[in-house]
TrEMBL record:
<protein>
    <submittedName>
        <fullName>Ohr subfamily peroxiredoxin</fullName>
    </submittedName>
</protein>
<dbReference type="InterPro" id="IPR015946">
    <property type="entry name" value="KH_dom-like_a/b"/>
</dbReference>
<dbReference type="Pfam" id="PF02566">
    <property type="entry name" value="OsmC"/>
</dbReference>
<comment type="similarity">
    <text>Belongs to the OsmC/Ohr family.</text>
</comment>
<dbReference type="InterPro" id="IPR019953">
    <property type="entry name" value="OHR"/>
</dbReference>
<dbReference type="InterPro" id="IPR003718">
    <property type="entry name" value="OsmC/Ohr_fam"/>
</dbReference>
<dbReference type="GO" id="GO:0006979">
    <property type="term" value="P:response to oxidative stress"/>
</dbReference>
<dbReference type="InterPro" id="IPR036102">
    <property type="entry name" value="OsmC/Ohrsf"/>
</dbReference>
Amino acid sequence: MDALYTAVATATHGREGRTVSNDGKIDLELAMPVELGGNGQGTNPEQLFAAGYAACFGSALGLVGRQAKVDVSEAAVTAEVGIGKQGEGFALKVTLRVELPDTLDDATGRKLVEQAHQVCPYSNATRGNIDVDLVVE
């Protein structure tokens, strides 16, 4: 694959540090969530992954919607990223909740969401590695 764009960010001190993008548009304090024993005073990798996945999936949905000549511009995607123990390490799981316009019938909406899941780069990166549940609302 020839990259059309490459994002660059550097994190220091892991989950209790800071992450900064090379262009300075992201400059965030990181902290463990309270649920994992931290103080919750900063963002965490799971929130950042959720934000990126939701945005990317929304764009993929827009693409397949335009190709099908179906307006999904008012759709909203919420990504829930969970982290938990798996064996000796940790693993992630994702639920994508896609709220579609009321004007869209259920079958068409479900088909577009499944098509978006096939073209979204985040979905392609996680396929076979992370459980991803699609919920159409």
